[in-house]
Design brief:
Its main location: cytoplasm. This is NADPH dependent diflavin oxidoreductase 1. Its cofactor is FAD; FMN. This protein is an alpha/beta fold. Helix content is about 30%, strand content about 20%. Strands 1, 2, 3, 4, 5 and 6 form a 6-stranded parallel β-sheet that branches. Strands 13-10-17-8-9-14 form a 6-stranded antiparallel β-sheet, with helices on one face. A 3-stranded antiparallel β-sheet has the order 7-11-12.
């Protein structure tokens, strides 16, 4: 590869900005550029002074707040001690993802763009303000913004004009390769073990909380199943006030895990280790070694409604002409209305898409799973109890999400359905942690 090294940094609360950041990275790879992509809080902001080309992709949460995985970077960047010309060697661009129905639409992206300018950064393009409320969705802004960005990069690096990019239908190298272990080299790993030196619960160090009760509080005849669920948080060090937020990462349904493994001809009991092919770090949420069952049940978001990038990547594995044409249509700018009708409106899941494209699914290699499927994101619940009244206990009220679309099978909320299905008597362990305390 030739040309500058592109760094793509993202701040993402629900995974959308992360997905977009990886989309930028894939476009860079197709242009044969070296690229790194990572969340903002895993990047040392003091190193920005030595970077040459950076794209920032960020969403806005709450009342104009940065995402949780961006807050440390945000505080550093806005220190008064950072000199005005600190970033005068940096070429950069900011792409914001937001919703114009909120008063502080893309507030974080706008403020970040302005701050980078103040610190001497050269902004290659105007700040991109993607809007969920647009008739064509955020891609109505993202597509032309990316085109303009690459035009500016080409102007700065004329040698790139001689580079022959990879074809759109050519698969990119996977971010990781799977190395399966034989029976003799397997090690047992308990992903829910409690460290002996307990730190405050966080996304990188969650606390395994035992479920004590799972009781329906609405009458059986009522249309809405609402559960009062209580957890034992003894020894966690968790402190909270009523109304604070607990984050819970759900598991995929057992039936979905079985179907996924059948479609891809995977042995759920087989163990593997991951080896990065580039600069990406092995996901912190996966034990090492890891079983296929653990990966599919607790990490791959196979029950989510897939984004456009899912179809873009899936199409590169298609050998059946009919399936390839349809997947390419769904991944094109012109096909977004068709994709909305197929996927978004009926809430069709990624797993259901795989069953609709059986020939392509049969060609899908295991090494590309972590590129194709995002990580299951934690869900937030307001805490419905007080430590003064219930010491060492944490309670939440959960309304089980269930609704019907044009699809025959009812749609179910992944986390609420999973929580409602858990039986405290079976000794099941829930991984939970506190984020965004008030």
């Amino acid at each position: 590869m030739s040309g500058p090294v592109l760094l793509v940094l993202y701040g993402s609360q629900t995974g959308t900005a992360q997905d977009t950041a990886h989309r930028v990275a894939r476009q860079a790879q197709r242009r044969r550029l070296k690229v790194r992509v990572m969340p903002l809080d895993r990047y040392d902001p003091a190193q920005l002074i030595s970077e040459v080309l950076v794209v920032f992709v960020c969403s806005t949460t709450g009342q104009g707040d940065p995402p949780d995985n961006m807050k440390t970077f945000w505080r550093f960047l806005f220190r008064k001690s950072v000199p005005a010309g600190a970033l005068n060697r940096l070429d950069c661009a900011v792409l914001g993802l937001g919703d114009s129905s909120y008063p502080k639409f893309n507030f974080v992206a706008k403020k970040l763009h302005k701050r980078l300018e103040q610190l001497g950064g050269t902004m290659l393009v105007p700040v991109g303000l993607a809007d969920d409320q647009h008739d064509l969705g955020p891609d109505a802004v993202i597509d032309p913004w990316l085109s303009l960005f690459w035009e500016k990069v080409l102007v700065l690096n004329p040698s790139l004009a001689d580079v022959v990019p990879l074809r759109e239908d050519e698969p990119l190298p996977p971010s990781f390769t799977f190395h399966f272990l034989d029976a003799e080299t397997k090690r047992t790993t308990d992903p829910a073990r409690v460290p002996s030196d307990r730190t405050a619960p966080s996304e990188s160090c969650p606390f395994p909380a035992r479920m004590l009760s799972n009781r329906r509080v609405t009458h059986p005849s009522h249309f809405q199943d609402v559960r009062l669920i209580e957890f034992d948080i003894s020894g966690s060090g968790i402190e909270f006030a009523a109304g604070d937020i607990v984050m819970i990462r759900p598991h995929n349904a057992a039936a979905d895990v079985r179907l996924f493994c059948q479609l891809l001809r995977l042995d759920p009991e087989s163990s593997f280790t991951l080896k990065p092919t580039g600069n990406a770090a092995v996901p912190a949420g996966l034990p090492e070694p890891c079983t296929v069952h653990h990966l599919v049940e607790r990490y791959l978001d196979i029950a989510a409604v897939p984004r456009r990038s899912f179809f873009e990547l899936l199409s590169t594995f298609a050998t059946d002409e009919r399936e390839r044409d349809k997947l390419m249509e769904f991944s094109s700018a012109a096909g977004q209305e068709e994709l909305h009708g197929y996927c978004n409106r009926p809430r069709r899941t990624a797993l259901e898409v795989l069953t609709d494209f059986p020939q392509t699914t049969s060609e899908l290699g295991v090494d590309h799973l972590l590129d194709l499927f995002p990580e299951i994101q934690p869900r937030s619940f307001s805490i419905a109890s007080s430590l003064k009244t219930h010491p060492d206990r944490l309670q939440i009220l959960v309304a089980v999400v269930r609704y019907q679309t044009k699809l025959y099978k009812p749609r179910r909320g992944l986390c609420s359905s999973w929580l409602a299905s858990l039986d405290p008597q079976q000794g099941l362990v829930l991984i939970s942690w506190i984020l965004g305390l008030k």
